[in-house]
Amino acid sequence: MNNPYGFIYVTQLPDGRYYKGQHKIINHKTLDSNYFGSGVIIKDYIKAKGTDKLVRTIVAFADDGDKLNLLESAFITDDDLNNPLCINLDSGIVTGK
Description:
This protein is an alpha+beta fold.
């Protein structure tokens, strides 16, 4: 896939917590390396502590928005949402859990 539409990722916080999400790619050269998530908790963390110690890992790419939404809803599981280390508040755009 030369120019994917977006990707699924995990952002690891230094305290062991994590955030899973999707991102529509804006800059294909850098894959938006400064993007770590848009959830309430991850945004609050970044505002308070910055991004220096965050690690983002891309786990999948999608070539359109529908596929990206489906990937995200499958990637954020009920096990994640019940895990105290997961800072996602829901399972993503498609299911709205």
